[in-house]
Amino acid sequence: MFDERKQLEEIIRLDSELNRIQDLDILLERILLEARLAVNADAGSIYVRKEDRLEIKYSQNDTLQKKLPQGHKLIYSIFSIEINEKTISGYVAENSVPLTIPNMYDIPEDAPYHFDPTYDKLSNYKTISTLTIPLQTNVGAVVGVLQLINKFDNNKKVIPFTEVDELFGMHFASNATMALQRAQMTRAILLRMISMAQLRDPKETGAHVNRVASYSVELYERWAFKHNIPENEKEKNRDILRMAAMLHDVGKVAISDVILKKPGRFTDNEYEIMKSHTYLGAKLFSDKQSEFDDIASQVALTHHENWDGTGYPGFVDTDTTDSDEIKNSRERGKKGTEIPVMGRIVSIADVYDALCSRRVYKDAWEEDSVLEEMRKCGGSKFDPELIDIFFEIYPNLKQIRERYPDS
Q1: Sequence ranges of the domains in the chain
Q2: Rounded CA separation 71/73 (Å)
Q3: Would you say 248 and 281 are in contact if contact means Cβ atoms under 8 Å apart?
Q4: pLDDT tens for residues 74-97?
Q5: Best label site of 9, 39, 194, 334, fewest CB within 10 Å?
């Protein structure tokens, strides 16, 4: 059986690690993973409360994951449930109590909650033991629910979760909730910055930037896997990239409404002004205090560069404040690997989302047309390796569009 002392030491270590993660989505995924590892759970899901419903954010399943090719990620259903006593997660959120069930197929008939085995049948996976824990603030508010599934013994046999697991789970959930509240505050600050850009450019919605950021992380993860990036570096970069990608167009706050909201084509002079949002955005992070500032600056500056060198703004000195000097310094766009990988990634994510989305000046493209355009631009506009990765992970990208729909 699991060494309980090691379990406790691991949870104490994780308390400090979780507090280093700044992005909300990265944190949610990590909370679920580490909670599962702490109690030897094969699978699990994490839900976040939104008014009177619980929305699933991440789901993990080691048994199903092992059936996929190496480097691929599990696809799961996106759904929400009402907070009431009819479902297990709803019951836990409604009553602010943990709930341990030894066998989901043997729930007493007089229990207020029930188990729907439909997903088990669809996935060919049997859910047996569960431990469901409320993510509760220090004033008693439930902000989400953590559900752990199928505890394994040392022989990989499913056994019930124990009272000790529940105790450890509640301790972990308490500290994870504090980290979660901090990450939610960080996300709220980012979205407020984006809301300022949205006042100028209606395309810069919360859904758009969340999708671009999530696509970027998926692309980076597969690229990092192929390039044997160490796990600790990959985890750190995922956290930073997701936030930096959300701010890729923040420089548009400095562009005139006359240009941003123009319904027709830009004049040459207007287009030059529009291009300036790249280095104006990068300048917001010029007083670099952290790796986030560095990557956010890279992304803002280079997400309109093209693999073949036809993009913009090219080689500019963002430390200067003279716009004419910047304009004159742009002899050509950056080309190939002169473009930082984070900029190459966000470029793909941004264009893909733009093609899929309705705008005041265009309808959303049909899926086949979007994919044809993305493939056609590999090697010219986009890094060809990253376009190959884009198509490898395309099912995951479609799932992200479900997670962050336009309102």
Answers
A1: 4-183, 201-403
A2: 7
A3: yes
A4: 888 889 999 999 999 999 999 999
A5: 9
